[in-house]
């Protein structure tokens, strides 16, 4: 009864600002263009040749009530009023009334080819019609074909693939492999990094926001080479000295490994200072450790300049983990390593029931084909660079933007109330996000203080989309 009462209060608080509406069968074309509070016309969203089918399912109020009563109380949502998304196509999403939104978040850097891309959908449906699941104890070409395709995207001798169901699982497995291979337990990760929320990955994650009070051992958190907030600015080698000191003063002198993202995603799209990864990798390898690249968000063509984020730093890891973009929304993750390192999992039986599921791997293989066929990596570079330029112009106009950073379609804009003190604008970013949503743009936020726009759209995002995004963000910032 207490939980039900609490659920009702949550429902009332979230939905009270606006009256309930009747069911609607409006198409995207039938929804009027939004206007500002003073009735002035707002920027026009780029044209798009798709109308979703009429939606006659449960409304926001009913869904939120069930979510509050039957789902985990840890779940949260963006916006003053929860958004009920019922349809998606390429870089656009549609709500229960058929209203179209420009998706600049991509399901948290997950949708790469575009929502419901026809080639990916076709591959999934065709595989599901034949067999949805057997077991890796039998042969199936879907898993082998996808593994081969992924290996072809990797440098060096990285060619053995272990499939998982998520990025957290992939990082858990990578940490275990490093410990088994080296015979050591100590792992070094970066402060402000995020690698998952299971037992081992929570230890490697270095933000109190995402850590519970459970036993987390064997992980040391090095200084974050953050060019914006870090002590040494953009001098990567100075930050790397901390890795050396951790090894000398916090371990036996030998470590299992080092794990980091090339660009920190959850941490607020933080680019690592130039020169840091080569120096850190060298230090860790001299201490007998393996280097793990967490490519869950930075990988799969998202940075534009390279297919994998680590390639932009001129390093080759010993283990690479990935998820999100490799499935375009399908639950799938992977660990890729060398044949020699992979042998450690033959000492006992390693097994994952759904890792390498034929439907997921068929969809993943289709994603790689679409990325190449439609030159989406090149688009991420060209349009992403253009969008970053426009964000920097907004920074010149609005003092609240303290920093613009990232590459390709992994971009961040940090809001601060004082540029000198870099005071996080935590309340302000929520107001801006709500205004942008009301004008038809969805964007994410992150960073330790929750004051960084995370701009991670599908890689089919266009220059016209970028212009619309910038115009809407400009207006929203002007309302502060």
Automatic annotation (TrEMBL):
<dbReference type="InterPro" id="IPR005814">
    <property type="entry name" value="Aminotrans_3"/>
</dbReference>
<dbReference type="InterPro" id="IPR015424">
    <property type="entry name" value="PyrdxlP-dep_Trfase"/>
</dbReference>
<protein>
    <recommendedName>
        <fullName>alanine--glyoxylate transaminase</fullName>
        <ecNumber>2.6.1.44</ecNumber>
    </recommendedName>
</protein>
<dbReference type="InterPro" id="IPR049704">
    <property type="entry name" value="Aminotrans_3_PPA_site"/>
</dbReference>
<keyword id="KW-0663">Pyridoxal phosphate</keyword>
<dbReference type="InterPro" id="IPR015422">
    <property type="entry name" value="PyrdxlP-dep_Trfase_small"/>
</dbReference>
<dbReference type="Pfam" id="PF00202">
    <property type="entry name" value="Aminotran_3"/>
</dbReference>
<dbReference type="InterPro" id="IPR015421">
    <property type="entry name" value="PyrdxlP-dep_Trfase_major"/>
</dbReference>
<comment type="similarity">
    <text>Belongs to the class-III pyridoxal-phosphate-dependent aminotransferase family.</text>
</comment>
<dbReference type="GO" id="GO:0008453">
    <property type="term" value="F:alanine-glyoxylate transaminase activity"/>
</dbReference>
